[in-house]
Every structure is written in structure tokens, then in C-alpha cells.
Amino acid sequence: MNRSSRLICFVILAATIGFQSMSVDAQDSAGPKPSDDISSNPDSIEPEVIAPIVPADLNLLNLLVQGGWFMIPLLMLSMLVVTMTMERLIGLRKAKVLPPILVRELADLGRAEGGFDPRAAYRICQTFPSAGSKVIQALLSKVGRPQSEVEHSVAEASQREAEKLHTNVRWLNMTAQIAPLIGLLGTVWGMIQAFYDTTQLDPGRNKSEALAEGIYTALVTTLVGLIVAIPAAIAAHYFESKIIRLFHQIDEMSFNLFPQIERFEGRVRFSQDRD
After folding, report:
1. Can you say whether the dihedral through the CA atoms of 82, 88, 94, 96 is positive or negative?
2. Which has the closest alpha carbon to 180: 217, 113, 230, 133?
3. Are the beta carbons of 102 and 128 closer than 8 angstroms?
4. Total domains in the fold of the chain
5. Residues 140 and 28 in one domain
């Protein structure tokens, strides 16, 4: 091999050795591989600490605030439910609708030695005014007239008094129907607003999170509407059942008096203006 060939081989060998040394230096400067570092010293790797996600407080006050102005009619309906429920609990007591003392006095009058006295019975009903006494007064006012006319008068009086007792119960039924609709209206409006706000977000913002937050807020009105409507429906059903039971007792008491007044048919015309 001549001198020039040996020089070329030396240059190529030197270049190869220099390139390999540069590659090793580059790898050392880049740092150790994770796998090598873990295998050599696994205790040196500190676990990544993930901060716990603390959920926002869910309480009634926050929900009412987030519901917006749709909460105003729902809160008004809730106060209406409480008021009507308390009023009907007081007004539908048996002592006010059909006083036990009235039933007892009329029963004692029917067992009197002189027989049943319509005028005395009418005075007893005036002494204990109630829905039951008004039905009995309607019966006594038709003493001496045909039984069909007496029965018609009793049915009219019973229906009239039942309608009076149902007046405030209708408010509960109305609330039970309207409250969920107002809540649903608030939810629909809130979802429309949430979708609209999502379209107005900057391109870098997370639209799914913003939309989820908007829907969560919108559902609050439906929740409150159901909270108001369910107790109203339960209270209305309870009061309607109680009115039916009370008037069954009133009708039973009035029809028990029919045999007492049958003997006056066609002979006596009783007037409530006479003593």
C-alpha cells in the first residue's frame, strides 16, 4: 500500500472514531433514559401527586340562587302550598265539619219520649254551625213535603257545602300542575342560554365543560318545581279523601233522620222562621 492510500485510510478511521465519540457525548447530554434510570434506581422516582378534585358545595341556597328569576314564582307557589295546607288542616277538622256534640244531640233527640221534634232539631243545628248542621237544616226545612223533594234539598245542600270545603284544595291541585311546568320552562330557557353561551366561547375554551355547567344550572328549576309540586299533590289527595269521608258521615246521619220525619209528610209544614 502506497503512502497516499495509507493516509486516506487513516483519515477515514479518525473520522469514524470522532463520529462515534460525538454520538456518545450527545446521548450523555440528553440524559438517561427513563427505563435505564428506573431499572438502576427505582427508589429515586417520586410518584406524581395528583391534587384531589373538591366538588362545589351543593346546598339549597346555592341551587335557589343558580335557578335565576324562575325561582320567584316557584317560591311563591311553595308559600301558597304551606298556607293552604295549614288552613285546610284547621278547617277540615271533624269538630268544625261535623261536630260530635251535634251528632250526639240529634241522636238523643230521636230517642226522646215525645218523639223527634223538627223544631228542636233545627235549634240544635243553629247552636252548632257547621257544614253538617247546614245539611241537616236543609233537610228539616222540607219537613212535611214529599220525600223526593227532601232528598233533593239534602243533595243540593251537601254538594254546596262540599264545594266550599274544596275551594282551597283546588289551589293545591293547581300548584301541583303548574309548578313542574314552570320548572320545565326554566330548564328549557336555561339550556337555550347554555347552548348559546357555548357558541360564543373562544376557540381555546373547553366547550363541553361550559355546556355541562349550563345544563346543570338549568335543571335546578325542574328540581325545585318537583319539590313544590309533589307535597302539593299529596296534600290535595289527602284533603279530598278526608272531605269524601266526612260527607259520607253527613249523608249517613241525614238519611238516618228520614224515618224520623216521614210521619210528618203531608201533615206539617215546618218553617225555619217559627220556633
Report:
1. positive
2. 230
3. yes
4. 2
5. no
Distance, CA of 12 to CA of 107 (rounded, Å): 133
**Does residue 43 sit within a domain?**
no
Angle, CA 89 vertex, CA 84 and CA 91 arms, to 5°: 90
Residue 104 lies in a domain: yes
Tally the C-alpha atoms within 13 A of residue 34's C-alpha that lie toward its C-beta.
2
Instruction: Based on the fold, state whether residues 112 and 16 are members of the same structural domain.
Output: no
Q: Which three cell numbers stand for residue 109?
A: 233527640
Global confidence as pTM: 0.68
Mark whether 77 and 14 lie in a shared domain. no
**pLDDT (tens digit per residue) in 30-67:** 444 444 444 445 454 454 444 444 445 666 666 666 76
How far is it, in rounded angstroms, from Cα 138 to Cα 199? Answer: 70
Q: Domain for residue 51, yes or no?
A: no
